[in-house]
Amino acid sequence: MSDGSVQQRQSQPAVPLLEEQRVGEILAAVPERRHWRYRPRRVGMVWRSRTFRVAAVFTVLAICGLVILALVRDQTGTQGFLVGLGLAVLPVPLLLAAFRWLDRVDPGPWRNVLFAFAWGAFAAALVAILANSFATRWIATTIADPSNADTLGATVIAPVVEESAKAAAVLLIFLFRRREFNGIVDGVVIAGVTASGFAFTENILYLGNAFGEDQQIGNSGVVSVTAATFFVRAVMSPFAHPLFTVLTGIGFGLAAAGARRRRVRRIVLPLLGLVLAMGMHSLWNGSAVFSPYGFYAVYAVFMVPVFGLVTWLAIWSRRRELRTLAAELPAYAAAGWLSPAEPLALSSMRARGLARDAARRQYAVAARGSRYTPYGPGWAPGSVPGAMPGSMPGPSARATTQAKAAAQAAEAHGKAAARAVAEYESFATSLAALRLQARRGTAGPDFAERELELLHHLWQRREVAAPALTYAAQATGLLRPHRLPPLPYAQQFTPQFTPHTQYGGPGPGPGPGPGPGYNPYRMPQQPPQ
């Protein structure tokens, strides 16, 4: 047996071993990581996979959604559930549109908005229903009079449970999407969207129960319980839940805007916002207990002024983001990355929209190839073969098809140009925010890499976006000889990079623009009237 094994080993070809003298040569020939054919296995690190995290979050939210919908349907009945669902969805588009409008300067990705809404509607609502029901039963059977259990549950337990469950969505995005969470506006938007989702599910429950009560007593029309509930929850106070949770979002926003080294502030401010949200929620729930007119007193004296104050703070924060663009981007214009007009246009929402529209029109007109020939060049009346003598023939089927294809292509070119300008505006806004973070000491050690990446994205879209933004600055009256952009931080804090040959610039060091022949004040052609 041993002899056969020896012979078998001797018959196998010898595998050469790696020589120590050639280790450096072989390691230098290893391809880059993206070209690897064999990748190391991550044993026990499945949770680090992005696909796994997305699938896990989606699965958890889907399970919560199915459970919460089943519970609500069980409490309201099928008809009550459908009526409540139809009425509860009405204020949702208005709330989401308001928060997206507030986030127009530096809009966050839609995946964060969808996650926040789904968390509020499914996960937070499920936690609230289960915890509130358990707490109410526990209070009724142990430490309180059963008649007061509902009141204590609504004023003490519900605010703590509900605000904590909603704040979890803000915390998750703050921790795992930190680059997309930069200040007060981001906190307000994420918190408000989460609370809107929570209020949506809660409204289904309240409106469905009100409809069931109307079915039992025979009420209908404007005097019904359903109509009264809808008026109070969807007309008078659709902002109630968003207003409570926005206080938590403001706390997280202030923590995000602060320096990383201030750990105490980054912990205390979100907790303070959460406590204020709980207190305001408790006051709102207990308003009807104080007196018959307690609800109206709290609504007029407390809720409306706080709502106005929070709205002012959110709009002020948005304007502050625009002022940041005007203050931070001129340094990049001085270094040759931007034209002098772009910081002015980027700091105006009106100019931003006008630049997108101008790029869409200009590139759509250019793609048509001709202004006055509706079916493309080369077509004219009488050019269709087989036309009747003396008649005015129309375009052939082939010409019509070509015209439609040309129109679609022109529209696609226009949309692509407008999208390029919108992306340019977004990258420029992120660049200004990154520069502000660097001056405050909150940018992190990878500031240079992030700055170069953003400048690269800007340069790729500069040919389309720079003329459109310059035109918008001129059309809105922002670009005037006496309104040259100031350079408040150009001496103290200069950009890490200047345009080089790889970007088509004049070479190392500051330069006038992307290349010879470039005119930053060139006006795009106007479409035919």
Descriptive keywords:
mainly alpha; disordered C terminus; 529 residues
Structure write-up:
- The chain is mostly helical.
- The chain is 67% helix and 0% strand.
- The protein is built from 17 helices and no strands.
- α4 packs antiparallel against α7.
- The longest helix has 44 residues.
- The N and C termini lie far apart (97 Å).
- The C terminus is likely disordered.
Brief sketch in words of this structure:
By secondary structure, the protein is mainly α. It has helices at residues 2-11, 23-28, 50-88, 91-102, 110-141, 149-176, 184-217, 225-236, 240-257, 263-285, 287-290, 294-328, 330-334, 342-346, 349-368, 397-440, 447-475.
Principal-axis shape equals globular
Quickly count the helices. Answer: 17
Report, as a whole number of angstroms, the end-to-end distance.
97 Å
Approximate helicity band? 55-70%
User: What is the alpha-carbon Rg in Å?
Assistant: 31 Å
Unreliable parts: 370-393, 481-493, 505-529
Structural class of the secondary structure composition?
Answer: mainly alpha
SS strand fraction: under 5%
The average pLDDT score comes to 77
The major beta sheet can be summarized as: none
Secondary structure: number of strands: 0
N-to-C SSE series?
HHHHHHHHHHHHHHHHH
